[in-house]
Amino acid sequence: MHDMSSHDFSQVRLSTARLELRPMQMADTDALFAMCADAEFVRYWSEPAWQHTEQAERRIQRDLDALPRGEYLNLSLVRKQDGVWLGNCCLFSFLWKCRRAEIGYGLARPYWGQGYMQEALRALLAYGFEHLQLHRVEADIDPANHASELSLKRLGFVQEGLLRERWIVDGQVSDSALFGLLQADWLALQTSAARHASV
Length: 199
Fold this sequence. Notes:
The protein has five helices and eight strands. It is of the alpha+beta class and 199 residues long. Strands 1-2-3-4-5-6-8-7 form an eight-stranded mixed sheet, with helices on both faces. Helix 1 (29-36) crosses helix 2. It starts with 13 loop residues before the first strand and ends with a helix.
């Protein structure tokens, strides 16, 4: 049975056609701050727009401290062709006895709509389901965030519930749409995709 101490995420590196997924670095501070200080980006987020670069430094330090302890895994999305930092994706809230985790993600606004997050999340989910042997991954999004909903559904997530007025951020009340993806569904989708690719 898994326990927290059995995971050290500090060496995790994932690779896709266009992206390298690697742990956050202090060199990512300015790019992370720019993303999280963007009012358009944080519209569907669970905290207000950042005001100070120290917020980015603290977040990165917290992420780095969590890696060797296996608390959660937050990875930067770095574009291979030019090394540009695009955003991040995360597996967190691990409950090992149920083999369950939550997934979170953020993409800086200049890179929206180019398929980068789909690419990154496929790699992260493959790591979660195939390497960590997770049974279930959950996502919690603002139901008004249609781009995020579409992204999750493309990956095989199913909406399982709606929690009314769950968040209040900067005085704004919003609901939570809850999505789930099971390991068996993920593996079936990968098998089906591979079969179509070979036809």
